[in-house]
Amino acid sequence: MPARAVTLYRQEQTQHQSSKHVVHHSRKSSSQVVKKKQVQATEAMAEPAYTVPAFRERAPEGMQEYQRVAAHFGRDLVQLQQELHRMKVATQEQVKNIEITREVKGMMPLRKDIPAEVPKAPDFLVSLRSHTVWEKTPVKLFCTVSGQPNPIVKWYRNNVAIEPLSAPGKYKIENKYGVHGLIISRCAVTDSGVYSVVATNPHGKATSKATVCVRRPQGGGELSHLPGLVPLLSGIRPSKLEVTLLDSFGVTFGTEGEFVSLVANMVVVPDLPNLPPEAMWYRDDTLLMPSRWAEMSIGGGVAKLTLPHLNKDDEGLYTFRVWTKDGTTEHSAYLFVKDATPTVAGAPGAPMDVTASDVNADYVLVSWKPPNTTHEAPITGYFVDRRKSGSKDWVQCNDSPVKVCKLPVHGLTEGASYHFRVRAVNKDGISLPSRMSSGVTAAEVESDVEVIKIEGKYDIAIRQEDLQGVYVTIPGPPTNVHATEINKTYIVLSWTPPSPRGRAPVWYLIEKCVGDSHIWQRVNTAVQLRSPRYPVYDMEDKKSYRFRIITINKYGSSEPSEPTAPIQKVDPYGVPSAPGQVIASRNTKTSAFVQWDAPKHANNLMGYYVDASVIGSKTWFPCNHRPYKHTRFVVHGLVPGDTYVFRVQAVNAYGLSEESQESAPLFIDAALSTPSAPYGISLLNCNGSSMTLAWKRPKHTGGSKIKSYYLDKREAESVEWKEVNPSPVVHRIFTVENLTGGVFYEFKVQAVNLAGVGLPSEPSKAFACEAWTMAEPGPAYDISFWEVRDSSILVQWRAPVYTGEGPITGYFVDMAKKGSSDFVTVNAEPVGHCYLRVTGLETGASYVFRVRAVNAKGVGKASDVSDPICAKALPGTKEIVCGVDQETGDIFLNFEACEASETSKFNWSKSYKEITESSRVSITSSGRHSKLTFVNPEKEDLGIYSVAVTDTDGVSSSYSVNEEELKKMLDLSYNIKHPIIPLKTELNYEILEKGHVRFWVQALKLSSSVNYRFVVNDKAITSAEGCKISHDVSTGIIQMTVEHFTKASEGTYTIQIHDGKAKSQSSLVLVGDAFKVALKEAEFQRKEHIRKQGPHFSEYLSFHVTDDCTVMLVCKLANVKKETTFTWFKEDEEITVDVPPNPMSGSCSLPIPMFSRKDQGIYKAVLGDDRGKDTSVYDISGKVFEDIINAIASIAGSSASELVLQCTPEGIRLQCYMTYYTEEMKTSWFHKESKISSSEKMRIGGTSEMAWMQICEPTDKEKGHYTIEIHDGTKSHSRTFDLSGQAYTDAYAEFQRLKAAAFAEKNRGRVLGGLPDVVTIMEKKSLSLTCTVWGDPSPEVTWFKNEQEIVSDDRYKITFEGGKFSSLTIKSVYVEDSGKYSINVRNKYGGEFVEITVSVYKQGEEIPEPKLGQMSKPVATPKPATPAPQPVKTPTPPTPTPSIKSPTPTPPPSVKSPTPTPAPKSPTPPRSMRSPTPPRSMRSPTPTKK
Fold first, then answer.
1. Alpha carbon distance, N-terminus to C-terminus of the chain
2. Which H or E run contains 1087?
3. Which residues pair with 1386 in a beta bridge?
4. Which has the closest alpha carbon to 228: 193, 289, 185?
5. Rg of the Cα trace of the chain?
6. Strands 381-388, 286-287: pairing kind
7. Concatenated DSSP letters of 311-330
8. What was the pLDDT predicted at 449?
9. How far apart are CA 453 and CA 467, in angstroms?
C-alpha cells in the first residue's frame, strides 16, 4: 500500500472522529463527500500506466498495406526514408529511458531485500466509519485491510451475515486493491443498525464496526409506495447538469382505455435546449422504453411519461430517475388502473401480463395473470386468441375455456410472427380482451447447423453430421422425454431433438400407452409435429400414461425413444392457501398501510389482491387490479373519516385463494404523531405585573386533538427558560402573572396531544412589561377562516382583551394579497359582531387579513396579520341542506362533511355563536353527517346557522333560514303530519266490453291496510251482483265496475279513501250531455259484444292496390266455422268470383283488375251461419273512388318509363309505358310549360298500358320539351322528352314517309272480289273467270297461266270494262287447260296477285270433289320506287319494350301503314298466300307493255 494512501485514510479517520455525530441535512452534500473521498482513494491507489512505444503503434491494416505495396510495386524511396527516420528517433528515446531507469536504481540506497511472503495476521489500515444519511439515499462503507496470506472478508449487519443474493440490488460488495466496500442502495429506515466487517486468515482475525443511521425528513410521513421495487444502480454516472425536482406526479388513478400522463417538473442548471438531462422511467423493477404503450419526452424543465391506452398491465409503482452531478435524484408514485366497464353486466375483468414463452417452430406457451373478482361470479376459464402480424383478424385457439392461466398453442406456421390475447369467462359472460402480447416468431430453437465466422468476413455453415465423419440418413430417436407442464386440463411433453438428424428435416410421432401395458397408440395422427413440444389433452382422469417419441424424415423413421415414467393428469399445486393475519394501520388522510402474513402453501405464488370494504356497506371493492408481489401494500383513494376493513387473496396460475380473515376496522386519518410547534405568540394586554398572551394552534396536530399547552418564559437578556404553568393550559390564551415591570420578556409554547409533547415554538418577540393606558382598544386576536369558497371567505376573530376607555362599538377588516403590504379595508362601516363574509375574491389567490377594533375614542391597534388563506373550496365541499323528515314532519338542517377525523366534532352556531344547550333545537352527529332539528320552529328561530368540523382543514358551511323559507317548510311539515293521500289521477270512467262501465282512481301509493268506499248519489255502494269493487296495492288503483249501466245510473260518483292517517276524496259528475255520451257508448259496446257472439268482421271492408295496380277489397273475419258462408255483392247483385272465398282463412278479398269509373258502386260482403250474420258495406264513389285512383296513380307513376317517340301516318306520337293507365288518373301533358288540351291538332289518349299524346301534321311550332305529369294526390311523377334538333328532323322525315306509304296503300291496285279458289269444269265447256278490281289511277290487269302471261286471242278472251271489271274467258276447255291461273292488278302505287286453280275432267269421268274455297288472299306488291322505311332516330335513351299484352303494340317499320285500311269483305273465301306471279313481276310491279 503506498504511503500516501495510508496517510490520506488516516486523515479521514481523524476527521471522522470529530464529526461522528453530525447529522447531514442534505442528500446532495452527503453524496458529494462520498464521491470526493472515493476519487481521492482511487488516485492514491492508482499505479503508473504502461506506455506503448511509438514504433509499436502501427495499425495492422497499415502494415498489411505496407507489405502488399513492397511485394508487388516496390518501395517508395521517400516514404521508406521517412519511416526509417521515425523508427530511429523512437529507438533513441527508448534507449534513453532505459539508461535513466538504471541510473535511478543505482542512486537508491542499498536496502535489505524483504522476503516476498511474510506471514501476517489481518490488520485494518483504514477502519469503517459511521454514517447518518437521509432515507432513499445510498451509502458506502469501506475499509483497507492487510495480511499475509490475503484475508477473507465477511460483512455483517447486527451480527447477521449479509448475503447480496437474498436482496438483489440492495447490497453490493466490492474488493479493489485491498480496499473492501459495502454499498447499500436506497437506504430505508429499517437499514439502520451496526455494520461490521470481519477479516480472517490462518494467522488471526480482525473486526471493524460502524453505525449507519437512516433518517426520514421531518413531515415526510410514510412513503406513498414501498421501497425495494426499483432496480438499483450498480455505479455512479457522471453528469455536468445540476437537477432539482420540483412538483412531481402523485398517486394516480385511471381506467382501462383511458390515457394518463405522469409529469415531473425540475430545475436544470445550466438549462441547455440541445442537452436535456439523462432520465429513466421505471415501472416496478422494469425499465420502460418508448413504445406504442409508453411515450416519453423531456425538455424545458418538464419530463413526461404518457400512457396513451391504459391497461391493467400498466398498474404499478412508477419511478422517475434523473442523473445529476452527484449521482441521481428520483421520484416515485403508484398508478392504479381499474377495469373498464364490461360489455355484459357481471362479466369479469380482463386478464393481464400476457406473455409467450418456450417458442418453437410450431408451438408456444402462453401465460397470463388472472383478474381480481370482488362482486363478480368466479372465473370458470379463459379463451386465448392469436393474430398473425400484419393481420387484423383474431383466431380463437381453444374451443373450450382453459382453467389454468397458461395454454400451450400448437399448429403455428413456422417463420410467422404472432400476437396473443386472453379473455376471461364466468357464468355471466366473457370479459374484454387483455392487452395483446409482444410479437413472437415461430422458429426452431435448436438447429443442427452451426455457423462459424472467419475474421468477421466469412460465414461457414457446418452440420453436426458433417463433423461425425459418417453419412447417416435415418435420424436417431429423441432423448430426455418428459412432461414440462402437468395439470388436470393437459400435459406438455418435451424432449431433446435427436442426434444425428439424418440430413433432412425431421418431424415426430407421439405414442402413448396406459399404465404398464405395451399397447402403444398414436397421439398426433393428423398433425405433422416439427417442434420438440406437444400438448396432450385426451387423457382420462385417475389413469397413468407413458409416452414415447419417434423421429421421422424422408429417409425413414427412428427407433422409439425411451418411454417416460407414468404420468397422470393432476393439478400438482392448486390455488394457494389463504394469507395469514391482516393488519391495517394509518398512513395518510386518504391511505392506509396494510400488511399480512404469507400463505403457508404458496404454490408458485404470483402475488396478492387486496380488497376493502366500508364498515356497514357489505360491499367489497378492489384496492389493486394487478397482483402485488410483497406482503405489504399502501391502499390509496380512501375517504377521510370512513372506517374500513381489509382482506387479502393470494394468486397463482390456478386462480385466487380463499379470502383471508378481515382486518380490524381502521378509521382513515393521518398517523398519530406529536403536534408541530405553535406559533404567532402575541401580546393582548399588560397591566405592569402580568401579561395576557395568545398564540395560534399548530399547523399539524399529529392526527389527534390538541389537549393542552405549556408555556416557558425568560428575560430578554437571559438564556435560561423557566416554566410558567406547571399544570397544562387548555385554551390558547393565558395571563402570565408575577412579572417585573419594565423588563422585557420572551415566551415559547409547546402543544400536547395523545402522542406526547410537541416541539416548542420559536421564541416570541421581546415584550415590555409596561401597563397599557391608551384610550383606543387593543388588538383583536385568533383570526380564523371558515366557509372558504372559490370567491368568498368568512373571517372570524375574538374581541380584544383590552377595550380602552370605552366599550367596543365595531370592527374594521383589512385585506391584502399574499406578499403585499397594501392593505385595503373591506367594510366601509364598522361591523358590530366578530365575523365578516368577504366576497368578490379571485379564485385560487391567497390573501392575508387583519382586524382593528373601534370604540368611542377611535380605531385601536391592528391585530397580527393572519396566515395566508387561498380562496378555493376544499374538494368535495358540500353545503347545509334544509329539509323536512318524511316520516315525522320535523324540519332539519343536515350537513355532510367532505372530510373528518376520528376526533372531529360538529360545532353548530346561530349567528356564529356556538349552540351549547338549547330547548329550540336538537343536534345529532354520526360519522361525517350531522343534523340540527328544530323542536317547534317559529319566527324566533330565524337567522344564520353554521357548522364547523374540528380537526379538519376548515370544513364548514352556513345556511340562512328566512321567513319565506320557514313558511314553506312549515307547510310541508303540516302536510306530512296531517297527510293527504296524493292521487295520480282523479276519479274517472271508461267503457268496457259488453257495455260495462269502470270507475277508477289511482293513488301514488297505497298500503295493504287501506280502506275506501264508493258513494253514488249519496248512497254507499258495496260489492255485489252487478257491481264489483276491488283495489291493487302495487299500482295504487281502486275501481268499481257497473255491469248494467242504464238511465238510472245518472248522477254523482264519489270515492272516499283512508290509509292510516292519510285521507283523500275524489268525485265525478255524470249528468246531462256527459251522461248521454257515456250511455250511448255503453249501449254500442253492448251491441258489439252481441254481434261478436256469431261470425263477424274483425275488420270491415277496405281497399289496397297491388303492385300490378289491381284494386283489392279486403276484410278480416272472426269467430267463423266450416259452415260459415261468405258472399260478395255489388249494387245488391251477387258477384261471382273465380275462386270462392274461404272464411276459415280469416280474411277474404275481391280483386278488381283494370279499375276505372265503371267499377264505382256500393259493394257489400255478407258473412253468416246458423249463429247469425254480419254485413260490411263499402261505397266506392266520391272520396273513396278518388283515393283508389290516387293509389293507382302512385304505383303507375313510379313505374312509368321514359317518353318514347313513335311516328304514324297521322303525325308524331309520344308514348309513356306504365303498369296500368286509365283516363280517370290525373294526367297532364305540357309543351314548353304550357298545358296541352286534347284537340284536332294535339290528340291525347291511352291504353291500359300506356298514355300517349299525338301531334297531327306537325310543324316547327311543335318543337320543344314535352312533359307528362301523373298526380297521385300527394306528389307528381313526371317524364320529359326534348322534341327538337335532330330528333325532330328524323321524326318529321319518318312521319312524311309513313304518310306517303299509307296513301300508296290506300290507292294501289287490288282485286275486290269475284274469283274462286278452285274451279272444276267438264271438258269442252266454256270457262269464264270474272272479278272486280280497283285502283287510283285505274290499274292495269294481266292474266297468267302457270306463271306464263296469257295473250288475248280467239280461244282466250281478256276483257277490262270501265276500269272495274276484268274477265278471262276460255272457249271449249280441254284437259290441257287445267292449271294455275292468276291475275295481276297494278298501278303506280302497287298491286296484288290472285291465284285460281282450274281442274278439267273428261265427260264420263267421276267429277272430282271440289275443294271448298274462300276469297283469294291478295298478295300485295310494293311500289319499287318506295325505299324500305328506317326507324326514327331520337336523342332519348333506349326505352323498355312494351308488354306483349298491349292491344296496340308499336308496329315495326313497314311499307304498310301501322293502321292499314281493311279490305272490303268478299263472299268468296280467301286463297293461298303464295303468289302466282313470276319473280320477274315482283321486280317490276308495273304491267308489261304489249
1. 159
2. helix 1072-1091
3. 1340, 1391
4. 185
5. 59
6. unpaired
7. -GGG-EEEEEEEEETTEEEE
8. 54
9. 17
14 Cβ contact partners less than 8 Å away, ≥ 6 residues apart? none
- Whole-number pLDDT of residue 526: 67
Contacts 24+ apart (CB under 8 A), 874-879: 874/788, 874/898, 874/899, 874/953, 874/954, 874/955, 877/789, 877/955, 877/957, 878/957, 879/957, 879/959
Q: Is 777 exposed, middle or buried (0-12, 13-18, 19+ CB in 10 A)?
A: buried
Q: How would DSSP label each residue in 1296-1325? A: HHHHHHHHHHHHS-EEEE---SEEEEETT-
Pairing, β 1011-1016 against β 1027-1032: unpaired
Bond before 270 cis per omega within 30 degrees: yes
CA–CA dist 305, 288 (Å, integer): 10
Report pLDDT for 24. 34
3-state DSSP of 1424-1459? CCCCCCCCCCCCCCCCCCCCCCCCCCCCCCCCCCCC
DSSP string of 394-419, one letter each residue: -EE--SS-BSSSEEEEE-PPTT-EEE
Confidence at residue 465, expressed as pLDDT on a 0 to 100 scale:
59
Nearest to 1419 by CA among 1308, 1336, 1304: 1308
Q: What is the spatial distance between Cα 1490 and Cα 1486, in angstroms, rounded to a whole number?
A: 12
Q: Is the dihedral of CA 665, 671, 674, 679 positive or negative?
A: negative
Compute the distance between CA of residue 1118 and CA of residue 1096 in angstroms, rounded to an integer. 6
Kindly list the distances between the CA atom of residue 1360 and the CA atoms of 137, 524, 610, 1180, 1386, in Å, as whole numbers in the listed order.
144, 110, 130, 66, 13
The strand order across the sheet containing 316-324 reads 252-255, 327-338, 316-324, 279-283, 286-287
What letters, b where the CB count within 10 A reaches 16 and e where it falls short, cover 170-206?
bbbeeeeebbbbbbbbbbbeebbeebbbbbbbeeeeb
Under-50 pLDDT residues of the chain: 1-62, 65-66, 68-74, 109-116, 219-229, 232-236, 1412-1417, 1422-1490
Q: Side-chain half-sphere of 320: how many Cα atoms within 13 Å? A: 27
Dihedral of CA atoms 304, 305, 310, 314 in degrees, nearest 10, equals -140
Is 215 in contact with 132 (CB distance < 8 Å)? yes
pLDDT value at position 1417?
45
3-state secondary structure (DSSP) of residue 1040: strand
Q: Which phi and psi angles does 782 have, rounded to 5°?
A: 55, 55
The pLDDT assigned to 635 comes to: 94
CA distance 533 to 520: 19
Q: What type of residue is 703?
A: G
Structure-block grid coordinates of residue 1317: 279458289
DSSP state, 545? Answer: E
Report yes or no: 772 and 759 within 8 Å, Cβ to Cβ.
no
> What are the backbone angles phi and psi of residue 127, rounded to the nearest 5°?
-90, 170
Contact between 1081 and 1069 under an 8 Å Cβ cutoff? The reply is no
Q: What DSSP element (H or E) covers 735?
A: strand 733-736
Q: How many CB atoms lie within 10 A of CB 557?
A: 17
Res 556: pLDDT: 87
| Residue 1089, H or E segment | helix 1072-1091
Instruction: Name the nearest CA neighbour of 1397 among 1373, 1384, 1378.
Output: 1378
Task: Give the CB-side neighbour count of residue 420, counting CA atoms within 13 A.
Answer: 29
The closest alpha carbon to 1411, from 1486, 1469, 1360, belongs to 1469
- Please report, to the nearest 10 degrees, the dihedral formed by the alpha carbons of residues 53, 54, 60, 62 taken in order: -170
Between β-strands 858-862 and 846-855, what pairing exists: parallel, antiparallel or unpaired?
A: antiparallel
**Pairing, β 997-1003 against β 869-870:** unpaired
Question: What pLDDT was estimated at residue 50?
Answer: 34
Q: Is 748 helix (H, G, I), strand (E, B) or coil?
A: strand
Partners of residue 768 on adjacent β-strands? 744
Torsion angle, CA of 882/883/885/886, rounded to 10 degrees?
-170
